[in-house]
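ok so i was messing around last nite and threw this chain in just to see what happens. nothing serious, just curious
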Amino acid sequence: MSDNNISYTIEEVASLLKVSKLTVYDLIKKNELTSYRVGRQMRVDASDLESYKEGKKNKGRQVANSEAIVNDSPRTFVISGQDIALDLLAKQLEKESENIRPLRLYTGSLNSLISMYNNQCDLVSLHLFDGDTGTYNIPYVKKILTGFPFIVINFLSRWAGLYVQKGNPKNITGWKDLNREDVSIINREKGSGARVLLDEQLRIQGMRYNEINGYQIEETSHLSVAAAIGGDRADIGVGIEKASKIVGVDFIPLIKERYDLILLKNETNEDVIRKIKEILSSEEIRNELSLMGDYDLSETGKVIFETY
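result:
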């Protein structure tokens, strides 16, 4: 059979290169090794594997020297998510890891996860509700990170629900009130966890978005939504409890959401994952998170899901 017709599984490529499967996945993610999917299995053509090996040989000493220079410099570690608790985690990670330089992105959950798939960030935080299972995060991670080994670690849990004006003058009690003609909402941007929660609840409750007053009006954070309610721009907003206390609006808790951290499992991240587990199990960060209030830390540091 011609080499042009031979293809290998990830396990076979790992065996041929004498590296782990995690390393092979990382090479594919970085576009250093070409792959394709047949059904649920990823394949690598023999010709593409040979091209990768030849490329490594040709780089020779130049690559080795450049890698040495890179290894002497702190690694930029991109953390994407909007809760202020992530700033605390980033600060602690930088403090305890000489080779890590955290960079914060304040992007919504779904867009952060897509960025991870596109190799644009290293750690993402999620609070994505799935109406079909009634669970958080795992269904989305499985679908978007298909083919990549990953780990899901709980950071904290918190209440999500509805912001309403002080004193709740419209007597709003839950999701069904979104469909009332005498109320209007301020929405979150597409890709945010709050927007996903709203859209899933509309689907579950059998309501259509075009029947919701104000659905097309968007803000880009929990605080800005709560401020819009406080400023009498709308009657309802979806968000987390903490923002309501900062702004001074009333809050109706409707669901306890799990706020998880997602990291890809590869050789580059092994030490970082271990360090994050250590940080989350420390009394120092737990005490600081407790001082922030409104967080449930009962599962903080627990591995919720892991692929190999």
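not much to say yet. The chain has a mean pLDDT of 91.
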